[in-house]
Design goal:
Blueprint: H1 2-33, H2 38-73, H3 78-91, H4 98-111, H5 115-124, H6 126-129, H7 133-150, H8 153-166, H9 180-190, H10 194-202, H11 211-227, H12 231-245, H13 249-252
Helix pairs in contact: 1-2, 2-3, 3-4, 4-5, 4-7, 5-7, 7-8, 8-9, 9-10, 10-11, 11-12
Length: about 250
């Protein structure tokens, strides 16, 4: 029901936006047809055409971008996500989505299981990720999973410390991009405090997660349950993660 409501709101916004574009186009046509001077007609037509072309290009690129995000986070289909990303980069004449691509690539490399290149990508774009608290949160959260799967205990511990420093940042300065319960769960799992890990993971509202996020959560939860010798529950959680995760590397580990 909640997803249906959000979809209706999304479609409603899209329709409203296209109505505005349509009205603008009609207004330009009105100015051209009701202006007698040829120079004025050319100016109105030229400027109107340029504005509409840029706006329509942006909407087209945004549509590709949204499909790209859905392919990665909902369908968990890496090949489709990569193909859409390449299409977006090819069509993005003004590099308007450059920053979004940097963030997307960090998630994509993680989901491919390409942890060394993911860490290199984060390091290469260090200044970009440190430009806002939101980006910094993504930076450390992605690092966290890279070190987690690498079993790099020392760097994972440092990364978790950096993440929890961000917890004290004012909420207005940072959006709730990831669950602190998830991050606490990773820390407890890292410390082999598995009952605490499970308690934290059980506090997460799974209805708020997309399939990609849920796959990582279920994988961690499954591993935690196995350590607690709750084998049927653990295997059930891992099986669900494998189904949801589709082509993600974390799903292929199961």
């Amino acid at each position: 029901m909640k997803h249906l409501i959000w979809k209706i709101i999304y479609v409603g916004k899209k329709i409203s936006l296209w109505i505005v574009y349509g009205l603008f186009a009609l207004y330009i046509c009105y100015l051209i047809t009701h202006t007698h001077e040829v120079g004025a007609k050319l100016i109105f037509g030229g400027l109107g055409g340029i504005v509409l072309s840029v706006v329509l290009l942006f909407e087209y690129l945004k549509c590709i971008y949204e499909k790209m995000i859905v392919a990665l986070t909902v369908e968990c289909e890496l090949k489709k996500a990569i193909a859409l990303k390449e299409k977006l980069q090819k069509k993005d004449l003004f590099n308007g989505f450059k920053q979004s691509i940097i963030i997307f690539d960090s998630l994509l490399l993680l989901d491919e299981g390409n942890y060394p290149d993911c860490l290199k990508h984060l390091h290469k774009n260090h200044h970009f990720f440190h430009s806002t608290f939101d980006y910094l949160f993504i930076y450390y959260h992605t690092q966290m999973y890279c070190f987690f799967f690498f079993k790099d205990e020392e760097n994972l511990n440092t990364c978790l410390e950096n993440l929890f420093k961000l917890k004290n940042v004012k909420k207005k300065q940072m959006r709730g991009l990831f669950s602190w319960n998830e991050i606490a769960g990773v820390r407890y799992f890292h410390q082999n405090r598995n009952n605490n890990c499970l308690s934290e993971l059980n506090l997460i509202d799974q209805n708020r997660l997309n399939n990609r996020e849920l796959t990582y959560l279920l994988y961690l939860k499954g591993q935690c349950l196995l350590k607690l010798n709750r084998l049927p529950e653990g295997y059930r959680s891992l099986k669900e993660a494998k189904t949801l995760g589709n082509t993600l590397a974390v799903a292929q580990m199961i």
